[in-house]
Amino acid sequence: MIAHAPILAIVVPLFAAFLTPVVSIVAKRFGVERARDWFVVGAAILMLLIVASMVPAVWRGEVLVYKLGGWSPPWGINLAVDGLNLLVALIIASVVSLIAIYSVVYMERDNGLEKYYTLLMLVTAGCMGVTLTGDVFNLFVFFEIMSISSYALVAFRRNWDSVEAGIKYMIIGSLGTSFILLSIALMYGLVGSLNIADLAGKIATIKATQPLPMIVPLMLTLFVVGFGIKIAMVPLHAWLPDAYQAAPSAISALLSGATATVGVYAMLRVSYMLFGALAIGTMFIILGLVTMVVGGLMALVQRDLKRLLAYSSISQMGYILLGVGFGTAMGIQGGLFHLLNNAIYKVLLFMCAGAIVYRVGTSNLDELGGLGKNMPITATLFVVGALAISGVPPLNGFASKWTIYVAGMEAGQPICTAIAVVMSALTLAYFLKAINLMFLGQRPEHLREVKEAPPLMLFPMLMLAAFCVVFGILPGLGIDLVRPAQSAVMNQLGYIGSVMGAG
Amino acid sequence: MAGMTVIVRTISRLLFPFLFLFGAYIVVHGQLTPGGGFQGGVVLAAAVILLLLAYGIEGAQAKVNALQAELAESLGGLILVWMGLMGTIVGIAFFQNVLPFGSLGHVLSAGSLPVFNFGVGIKVAAGLLTIFYAILRIQGEEEK
Amino acid sequence: MSLNYIIAMLLFTLGIYCLLFKRNIVKMVIGLQVLTNGLHLFLISLGYREGGIAPILAGEMLGRGATAEFAAAAVDPVPQALVLTSIVINVCTMALALSLAIYIYRHYGTLNPFQIRRLRG
User: Fold this and answer.
1) Which of A16, A62, A83, A125 could be A484's S-S partner, Cβ–Cβ 3.0 to 4.6 Å?
2) How far apart are CA B52 and CA B48, in angstroms?
3) CATH code of the domain covering residue C23
4) Domain count, chain B
5) C85 and A168 in contact by Cβ < 8 A?
6) Is the ipTM of this structure higher than 0.90?
7) Chains near A (3 or more Cβ pairs under 8 Å)
């Protein structure tokens, strides 16, 4: 493990964000504007290496505790990396590296790019901060950094749709984060500490010795609402379709791959670790089912490709909540594996949509057609992603969905499994419709000269599709990747002991 | 954007150095009195924005133009992160104290805190100024 | 002392009402500010101690080595630090929201969010 790895994983993107304006000015002076893009790609890959270096130690079972400023918990802010953190950090680092490579080509026609790359690095720093921290107010601050940068990125193109989507996202998102702040204030007033491990211990003591004060379920509800807005749980999902449709496709991929994953992680950390409440699983199951159904049904009637992908993102979040809500080892493994797979195929699908927008100029399904002959590689990769998200064997979606189905049967909830299977079939239906409308059939006259996407855009898409296939053929590999995370979720006492004991 | 009358311009020109000094005082005494980086940075930015309102954009840009503000903002952020990294290189953890503590109540005390305050002050002042310039640029394009 | 909490919750509710029911983006932004002010008031009141002094170690406390009685008499400085951080975050959010409001006014000529809904479905 690289020394000081946990804090370096946060500092490297932050440093890159502060350096990007300087690099951009210097690069423009020397005439090599692309140097700024490759600088950001380099920073993202460096961050990936730092995160990967923490893997051996954490997968042996130890919790890496890093004390900021040398102050020991619970008086100081500390970073705590266990299995769950590391899985999410790996997902985010990989997704951001691939999106940075993709953006080099995709965003080249826009101006004001130094702000785009600065904001991209700030979103990454915010995501890493939320993932790796062990202090609940630090989590709030980095969550705000991530959210505000993503509001700005959604409105990046500054046309009518983007600004409207940005304002809607910002108002709803700010309401959510103010709920989180209220909950943190209530928690501080009740317990007097801000460290996650310390809070977990003290709340467990409160729950054990007295009848539960009314404040504790209120705090949990506020947290779930606040984070639920970020991951677009129904009924808090109103901002998501507009934001994903109006943002540049690279940013839609970032939002669905990185910030949604971070939102799920934060919700898991707070509800399972802080409140130790495996009993709120029922609420997660119900919310997951509603989210899955509403997302899927709304996706059936969409005529715009990115809006369809946005609603299917909502639907996939429902699967993750369902899997995690079951509370059993297999359920949590299924939910976390689905989180990993969702990041992979959702980013792939948005990148394919971006390739089409880059070459054709529109994402409206009514205006596309017959592109399979012009863009064969993009079409194949889109088909791979669509089959993966629908849960068709032997791709990765099938492996994680099968785990969730089996967990549902074992937990005695066959109805949930039945609904999930039906929604999978529905997912396949609307994706086949989209593929038919876009790649097969009659090609309109004005699309005859459309070329294949540039190779630098195809490279990240190929890597993601390869991951889809690999995790599908070898599901054991995926489960091995996820098992340390799952045992970390169920091991609340171990987490508390490791963090407080390191003081 | 036009400026204001002669009276406003004269008074702002006279007041600007005192406002700047007051902001710098708040930043430097951050470890002794309430204040510090953010509060001092806001007062510093307010001083320049007062000039902006009184003289119009051209007068303010003669003192601090947009490019300098952007570079100052990056510089402030880099000072902050650099001091944190000094904690890792010289000390044990990020953001750890590396400078001597000094005696209680003096300005040059409290280890790395004055440097943090300085970095944050520059960054906040430059950041708020950049925000104002950006918003005024939108207004300026609209009027043309 | 509980008057602080009541006013804080009143501000919070007022802010949410403003955010959800006003038809002007600038008023919604003001509502967001009122909401966060209520939260900050709530947070600071949490740290209050009856008859406490400001948590600044200076002046007559210097050189007496009386840190224990200082710690017993001072109000809690942690919520004050939390509120400072939250104010800074708020400034950034307000700057972004107002810039977007200026863009919307420039493009649509109106600030009514219900009249600018082109994205549907």
Assistant:
1) A83
2) 6
3) 1.10.287.3510
4) 1
5) no
6) yes
7) B, C
